[in-house]
Amino acid sequence: MGQPVLGILTLYLNDNGLLEERPVYQKMIISGKKLGLEVFVFTPSDVNYAQNRINAHMYDAATQSWTRRWRSFPHMIYDRCRIQKSHRFVELSNFRRKYGHLTFLNRVLRNKWTVYKTMRKEEVFKEHLPQTRLYESSNDLMEMIRKYPLVYLKPINGTGGRGILRIEKQGASYSIQGRDQDRRIVSPQRVALSSIQSRLSSWNLKDNNYLVQQGIQLKLPNGRVHDYRMLVQKNGLGEWEVTGCAGRIGASRSITSNLHGGGQAIRMKELLSEWIKDDKATQDIMARAELLGVEIAEFLEQSYGRLCELALDLAIDRKGQIWLLEVNPKPAREVFIQAGERDTYRTAIIRPLEYAIWLYEQKKRRKEKLVPSTYD
Ligand SMILES: Nc1ncnc2c1ncn2[C@@H]1O[C@H](COP(=O)(O)OP(=O)(O)O)[C@@H](O)[C@H]1O
Ligand SMILES: [Mg+2]
């Protein structure tokens, strides 16, 4: 019996063959080998559809070099592709369609709006979801502004804190600030209620591209915003577990905490203790957040098909209430290195591999017994 083989499905970042996250995959390949799992990397354009073969990217730990080799299809696929506005993304959609019958560790989640609507149906999540609407016309924004002193506008397919606006009531007027599509800071501007719409005219808010969300007050005493990044993963027993949760503090003048936008990572306990001074309360919040993280992962897996990991952007308000700002299906793990949690980072790399091995064993056993699996 040969070894199980896992293919990491990714995308080239440009037309020159630059692979996203190659250093992370390198670590996964080395760790996989130690666990008895062979791992290679490929993109949809490396697939020869006629011959059902893949021109795989292989890493050789002995020579510390990457090479290419023709391979047959792997037993399992770990889909790491993030949304891209390019012909490569169209190719990816074709691949997912044609090979949808293969064993994927993780299926595709939908955009922020669809995920919100799915979660909203479940009673237990209601108190954790900031009120959110699709921006269909200026009415949607105006009604939210009337209802909440702080409102966020976010692209439904956005990532990394791009194209986000924050509108905050300040006395009789409003302050608008944010990050443009290139993540540049948009400095605060004060406007009257009647001028908000015209001030936003250069933003492409139409075409159901944006959502309007109740804002949570997350400014620390130094004026910076903060939130938490929780990584929930399946372990080697096929069960959901919280791998770690780290705090993020936004750059100065930033309305987002994303690390790529200059945010800093810090241990959760340290950040939370600054925000909520009662030790017992912080312990209680951390325990509740963990439970919530696992519940969300279980629920989304039931809704969208098999998943192996999710990163949740969580906010904790002054009262200790936990809010879910966003679900990330293709999480980076670097936040844990930056927060000084090397062990958590290592676990974050290894868990999907251990889960893949577990899944492979399950499938083998099922084949022997001919019992169909839940998600394929
Ligand atoms: N409703 C909100 N209230 C307060 N801050 C928010 C809200 N939504 C987003 N943010 C801030 O903006 C950041 C980016 O928003 P997010 O929804 O995670 O989009 P992205 O996909 O760009 O990361 C969050 O990490 C948080 O710092
Ligand atoms: Mg986010």
TrEMBL record:
Report the domain of life of the source organism: Bacteria
Cross-referenced InterPro entries, in alphabetical order?
A: YheC/D
Descriptive protein name: YheC/YheD family protein
Can you name the source organism? Paenibacillus albus
